[in-house]
Specification:
Blueprint lengths: L1 E6 L2 H11 L4 E6 L4 E3 L4 E3 L2 H8 L4 E2 L8 H9 L3 E5 L7 H4 L6 E5 L11 H7 L4 E8 L9 E8 L6 H25 L31 H10 L6 E5 L2 E14 L6 E4 L2 E5 L4 E10 L5 E2 H7 L11
Parallel strand pairs: 1-2, 1-6, 2-5, 6-7
Antiparallel strand pairs: 3-4, 7-8, 8-9, 10-11, 11-14, 12-13, 13-14, 14-15
Length: 309
C-alpha cells in the first residue's frame, strides 16, 4: 500500500525502518519540527526524520496541522493509509479521513489501559506483569479507536522501561506490518475497546523522581525500573543527590527505612516494609554511572548511613 508515516522519536523510527524495508511504499514522512537538544542546545533532526532521509523519503515538518497546508500536502500525495506512531500532534478530523483506509495508530499498551503519553513507563511503575501493543483505527478521541491487532508480552520482574521500550518497538513494528496485510486483504476486523476508562498514562515529570523510603521495596524497585532513563529515581545521602539506575528485590530484611547496609561489596537499603532492596547501579551528582562495588569504594557505608538524608 501507499503510506504516509507520521512519527517523531526513536520508538517510531523502529517502525519506519521496518516499513521502509517492506513491500509497502512510504510516500512521505511527517515529523515534529527540529528542536535544540542537549546542553549546547544544538538543533538536530528528529530520529524519524533522520531515518526517512536515509531511505530517501520526503519529510514534512509542519509546525501546525490546523491551517490546512498539511491536509493539502496529504491530498496531493493520495495515500492509501496514514500510519501514526508517537507523532506528538493531534490530527484534525479532515486528516483522519484523508486516506482511503483512514489513519492507524500504534500504541504501546493493552488498550483501554494506559491511554496517554507514557504507557510503557506506567506499566513498569505499577508493577504490571503483562503489556503489549495495540494497532487501532484512529478516531477523534485520545487512543479510543477500534482495535485492529493486538500483541501481548510479559514484563520481566527486573525489566526497566528502557528495555521494555526497545522490545515493544520491535513487536509493534511487526504488528503494524501484519495489520497492513489484513487491511489490504479485507480481513481486518475492528473490535471496540473494552468498556472502562482504564488507567490514564500521563506524562512523566521530574517531580516523580524522589524516592520515599517509607514505601515498600517492590514499589521503590518499580519506581527505579520505570523512571529509567528519565528522570531517574533519585535519593540523597548527606545532601548529595544520587540517581539510582537499577535495583533488585532480595529476601533480606531489617533496619529502619532508608538505612544503608553493605555486605560483601553489595549495597542494600531498607524500605518501608522492612525488606532490603539491592542497588546495582547508581550515580552521584556530577559523576558517571557506576556499579555498587565502585560506589562503595569511593563512598564507604557507616553504621548510621541513610539514604534520603
Amino acid at each position: 500500500m501507499k503510506c504516509i508515516f507520521m512519527g517523531t522519536p526513536d520508538f517510531a523510527a523502529v517502525c519506519l525502518e521496518k516499513l521502509a524495508s517492506s513491500r509497502h511504499e512510504v510516500l512521505a514522512v511527517f515529523s515534529q519540527p527540529d528542536k535544540p537538544v542537549g546542553r549546547k542546545q544544538q538543533i538536530l533532526p528528529t530520529v524519524v526524520k533522520a531515518c526517512a532521509l536515509q531511505h530517501g523519503i520526503p519529510v514534512y515538518q509542519p509546525p501546525t496541522l490546523k491551517d490546512g497546508s498539511a491536509l493539502a500536502q496529504i491530498n496531493q500525495l493520495q495515500p492509501d493509509i496514514i500510519i501514526v506512531v508517537a507523532y506528538g500532534k493531534i490530527l484534525p478530523t479532515e486528516i483522519l479521513h484523508a486516506a482511503k483506509y483512514g489513519c492507524v495508530n500504534e500504541h504501546a499498551s493493552l488498550l483501554p489501559k494506559y491511554r496517554g503519553a507514557a504507557p510503557i513507563q506506567w506499566a513498569v511503575l505499577n508493577g504490571d506483569r503483562l503489556t503489549g501493543v495495540c494497532i487501532m483505527q484512529m478516531d477523534a478521541g485520545l487512543d479510543t479507536g477500534d482495535i485492529l491487532y493486538t500483541v501481548k508480552t510479559d514484563i520481566g520482574p527486573n525489566e526497566t522501561s528502557a528495555e521494555l521500550f526497545d522490545r515493544l518497538a520491535v513487536l509493534g513494528a511487526d504488528a503494524l506490518l501484519k495489520t497492513l496485510d489484513l487491511i489490504e486483504s479485507g480481513e481486518a476486523v475492528p473490535q471496540k475497546q473494552p468498556q472502562g476508562d482504564g488507567f490514564y498514562a500521563s506524562r512523566i515529570t521530574k517531580d516523580m523522581a524522589p524516592i520515599d523510603w517509607s514505601r515498600s521495596a517492590a514499589q521503590i524497585h518499580n519506581q527505579i525500573r520505570g523512571l529509567q532513563t528519565w528522570p531517574c529515581a533519585q535519593t540523597t545521602q548527606n545532601g548529595r543527590v544520587l540517581k539510582l539506575h537499577t535495583s533488585r528485590l532480595t529476601p533480606f530484611s531489617g533496619g529502619a527505612p532508608g538505612q544503608v547496609t553493605e555486605q560483601n561489596k553489595h549495597l542494600y537499603v531498607t524500605c518501608g516494609d522492612g525488606k532490603w532492596l539491592e542497588i546495582l547501579e547508581l550515580q552521584p551528582a556530577g559523576k558517571k554511572k557506576m556499579d555498587a562495588k565502585s560506589f562503595l569504594s569511593g563512598y564507604p557505608v557507616q553504621t548510621d548511613t541513610y539514604f534520603g538524608s
